[in-house]
Structure formats: C-alpha cells, structure tokens
Amino acid sequence: MSKIESGAVSGYRQAEFDIDPVYVRRWSPRSFSSAQVDDDTLLSLFEAARWAPSANNEQPWQFIVARTEAEKTVFLGFINEGNRLWCDKAPVIALALSNRINSRGRPNRTHAFDTGAAWGFMALEATRKGLVTHAMGGFDADKARASLGIPEDYEAHAVIAIGYQGDEEALPENLREREKPSDRKPVAQMLHSGTFGNRSS
C-alpha cells in the first residue's frame, strides 16, 4: 500500500474502550503531498487550538506559521537533519510556543501542559478535516529563537508539519518501513490506584 488511508488505520490500532474514532485515526505520517492547504481549512486548526483548556484561562500558546518558501527555508535552518529529510515537503510548518509568565507577571507552571492540550485539539481537527500533522521535538530551540525573534519569556516546544498525506514511496528508503500508525500501551499500564505503583490489575 502506497498510502495508509484513514479507514485503514484500524488495521494497525484498536481502542480498548468506546471512544470517537478520530482519536485512533490521528497519527503522524512523514510523507506529505504538494497539495496546498487553503486559508479557511488551515485557520480551522488554530480555531480548534483556541478552545483548549488552560489554567486560569491564561491561554499561553502561540504559533508561528511558515507557508512561503522563504519562511519555510528559515524553519528548515533550525530543524534537525533527520526531520528535514521529509518535512520540507509539507506545505505548512508551524512552531508551537508558550508564555512562561502569566498575566500577573508570575511564572506559569502549566504553560507547557496547556500548550500540549492546544496542540492536541489542533491535531484532532486536522484529522477531522482530512489533513495530517507531525509534531517534532528535533530542532534547535536557541537557533529558532534567534531566527524568529522569539522573546525570552516564551519557550519553543515543537515544530509541526501540516498538510495532506503523500505516498510513502516519496520518503527515503530508511523511513518507508516506519510510515504506519503506531500502537499504544494498554490503558492499565498508565493507571495507578491511589498511589504511584499501585496497579488496579
């Protein structure tokens, strides 16, 4: 199969309990097609991120978006080589950041946690719209700060490739075998009853 369509994802992963299928259908391909994402569709992803929960409704997240070739070239300058091999084909690349300082001028202990929620909402909306996303931690945060003029109060968390899924044959050979949805640990492996290490089963 040259491309794993959303309907075929169930062949790789199954939910243990009843949830909306969008959670299982969301995965992180590396192959992107050259098809552009129109403005309204792209902005709908950030609209979804807008409605994520955050402590004291601080909404600390910010996104820097690269769509032109010139903008993407700047991003590729701080993305690790292993990720540049495939993410340069994505029509949109975004950098997720968050403000470490809250509206009262104090450290915001949950800024990263809250921004992770915003990214999750965004990724699910992308899946619902037929898009794919792939978040990357492999980038030089200091270089990103210098290249994009990011203020010191903000922390860069992840680079996100956004677009439509491409064929796996477009990837370097060493990445093709990884171009499939990953499974997840069972629910029981992440739950503790009352205290850490006390497993309910």
Helix content: 25-40%
CATH class membership: Alpha Beta
Catalogue the unreliable spans.
none
Please give the oligomerization state of what you see: single chain
- CATH architecture label: 3-Layer(aba) Sandwich
Q: Which class of secondary structure composition applies to the elements?
A: alpha+beta
Largest sheet: 4 strands, antiparallel
Quote the average pLDDT.
94
Terminal CA distance reads 39 Å
- What is the strand arrangement across the widest sheet? 1-2-4-3
CATH superfamily: NADH Oxidase
| Shape type | globular
Radius of gyration over C-alpha positions, nearest whole angstrom? 18 Å
Helix count? 7
Topology diagram in text:
Layout: H1 22-25, H2 39-50, E1 61-66, H3 69-76, H4 81-87, E2 92-99, H5 111-128, E3 132-136, H6 141-148, E4 154-163, H7 173-176
Antiparallel strand pairs: 1-2, 2-4, 3-4
Which descriptors apply to this entry?
about 200 residues; alpha+beta; NADH Oxidase; four-stranded antiparallel sheet; 4 strands; about 30% helix; about 15% strand; oxidoreductase; oxidoreductase activity; Nitroreductase-like; Nitroreductase; Nitroreductase family protein
